[in-house]
């Protein structure tokens, strides 16, 4: 075997060094690739709890579309057998979308209002309170109402009422309102939520001084009396008598003066129709001769108002609430601003009530002249604030009840009221 020359050894060393460098380089490239290799993103788990403030879709929290039921109450007397009646049970299952929409709207209402009750504090402006409630509702149903027709699919059933002291109903802040909630105020918070035109109408009253506790207790008790007695074949005038008796059993001492609690006679509960908050039947808060009966399939907003004043309201103050009339007259609109505004109203709200802030959200400007013209022509109905005697205090509680074939379902009932 021939001996290796120094030249051979040198060439071998160079070859090994070159090969080694290549391996080092390849290892470095492989290491970098390993470091930069993208990991597959983990699938996000579906949210199982609501955020604060509310932002998770109700449909996400209940992914199979089985939304919580309201409070189911058996009918009484002659209607007691409805829950086991096969025909009635069959009728109850004919329209599952009806119950699904209503329960989704009701759960949205519960979550938003319970958050509002915990977070509303004196010092906040009414505009801030209204916007936070309405934005939460829109997030939870997944419709922000900013694109044409979106608010008709789901969202606000009517403008949020923030009615202070002697104002009982129909006040919502217009753009530019800087009024703040005071610790001495009694505020009625009236919220409407709809899904596919199924409107849940429910309200509560807030105060920050125990001096008003009896006023609130009287109205809550009266509303619960109305809910307890409501049912298929109940006559509306008779139901008003039960409500009146309960409310008038209370009195309230405010600043050393004792006031009897009076039901407000000229604001009533009402039945609710698809896309129409005010139906054809009224539920009074006092006994009347109205012999109209509640019927199977009816949806009612049982709401009662109590007052330390006259127990009768008048329209007074700047208007915020409006709605397109269900059967408006044919009118020759000469104002171009009225024509264009009417188109916006029809496409974005239909027959659902709305307020001026909603027009501002849609980018409408200088619309008051056109709006007033539509009201004057009878095409749009205005709903000014309803106000009792100056210096008086009013309270409101309200729930929506479905008179199903088998049971009465207080759809908006919650742990709060």
TrEMBL record:
InterPro entries: Creatinase/aminopeptidase-like, Met_Aminopeptidase_Type2, Pept_M24, Pept_M24_MAP, Pept_M24A_MAP2, WH-like_DNA-bd_sf, WH_DNA-bd_sf. GO terms for cellular component: cytoplasm. Its main location: cytoplasm. Residues 32-46 have a biased composition (Basic residues). A divalent metal cation 1 binds at residues 190, 201, 398. A divalent metal cation 2 binds at residues 201, 270, 303, 398. Substrate binds at residue 170. Residues 1-57 are annotated as: Disordered. Its cofactor is Fe(2+); Co(2+); Zn(2+); Mn(2+). It catalyses: Release of N-terminal amino acids, preferentially methionine, from peptides and arylamides. Keywords: Aminopeptidase, Cytoplasm, Hydrolase, Metal-binding, Protease. Binds 2 divalent metal cations per subunit. Has a high-affinity and a low affinity metal-binding site. The true nature of the physiological cofactor is under debate. The enzyme is active with cobalt, zinc, manganese or divalent iron ions. Most likely, methionine aminopeptidases function as mononuclear Fe(2+)-metalloproteases under physiological conditions, and the catalytically relevant metal-binding site has been assigned to the histidine-containing high-affinity site. GO terms for biological process: proteolysis. Its EC number is 3.4.11.18. Residues 1-18 have a biased composition (Basic and acidic residues). Residues 102-304 form the Peptidase M24 domain. One of its GO terms (molecular function) is metal ion binding. SUPFAM superfamilies: Creatinase/aminopeptidase (SSF55920), Winged helix' DNA-binding domain (SSF46785). Belongs to the peptidase M24A family. Methionine aminopeptidase eukaryotic type 2 subfamily. Cotranslationally removes the N-terminal methionine from nascent proteins. The N-terminal methionine is often cleaved when the second residue in the primary sequence is small and uncharged (Met-Ala-, Cys, Gly, Pro, Ser, Thr, or Val). NCBIfam families: met_pdase_II. This is Methionine aminopeptidase 2.
């Amino acid at each position: 075997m021939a001996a290796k020359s120094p030249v051979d050894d040198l060439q071998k060393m160079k070859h090994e060094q070159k090969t080694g460098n290549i391996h080092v380089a390849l290892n470095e490239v492989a290491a970098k690739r390993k470091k930069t290799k993208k990991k597959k993103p983990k699938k996000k788990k579906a949210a199982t709890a609501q955020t604060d403030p509310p932002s998770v879709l109700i449909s996400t929290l209940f992914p199979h579309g089985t939304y919580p039921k309201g409070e189911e109450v058996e009918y009484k007397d002659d209607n007691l057998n409805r829950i086991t009646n096969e025909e009635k049970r069959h009728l109850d299952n004919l329209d599952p979308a009806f119950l699904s929409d209503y329960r989704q709207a009701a759960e949205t209402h519960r979550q938003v209002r319970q958050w509002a009750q915990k977070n509303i504090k004196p010092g906040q402006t009414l505009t801030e309170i209204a916007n936070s409630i309405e934005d939460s509702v829109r997030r939870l149903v997944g419709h922000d109402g900013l694109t044409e027709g979106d608010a008709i699919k789901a969202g606000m059933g009517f403008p949020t009422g923030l009615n202070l002291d002697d104002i009982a109903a129909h006040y919502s802040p217009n753009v530019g309102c800087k009024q703040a909630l005071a610790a001495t105020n009694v505020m009625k918070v009236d919220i409407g939520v709809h899904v596919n035109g199924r409107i849940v109408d429910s309200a509560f009253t807030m105060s920050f001084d125990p001096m008003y506790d009896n006023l609130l207790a009287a109205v809550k008790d009266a509303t619960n009396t109305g809910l307890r007695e409501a049912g298929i074949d109940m006559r509306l005038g008779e139901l008003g008598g039960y409500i009146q008796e309960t409310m008038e059993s209370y009195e309230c001492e405010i600043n050393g003066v004792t006031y009897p609690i009076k039901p407000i006679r000229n604001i009533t509960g009402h039945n609710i129709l698809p896309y129409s908050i005010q139906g054809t039947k009224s539920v009074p808060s006092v006994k009347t001769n109205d012999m109209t009966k509640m019927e199977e399939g009816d949806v009612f907003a049982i709401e009662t108002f109590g007052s330390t004043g006259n127990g009768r309201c008048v329209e007074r103050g700047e208007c915020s609430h409006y709605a397109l009339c269900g059967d408006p007259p044919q009118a020759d609109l000469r104002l171009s601003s009225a024509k264009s505004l009417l188109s916006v109203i029809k496409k974005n709200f239909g027959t659902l009530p709305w307020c001026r802030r909603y027009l501002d959200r849609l980018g409408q400007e200088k619309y008051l002249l056109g709006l007033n013209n539509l009201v004057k022509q009878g095409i749009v109905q205005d709903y000014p604030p309803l106000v009792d005697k100056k210096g008086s205090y009013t309270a409101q509680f309200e729930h929506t009840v479905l008179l199903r074939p088998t049971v009465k379902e207080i759809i908006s009932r919650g742990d709060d009221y």
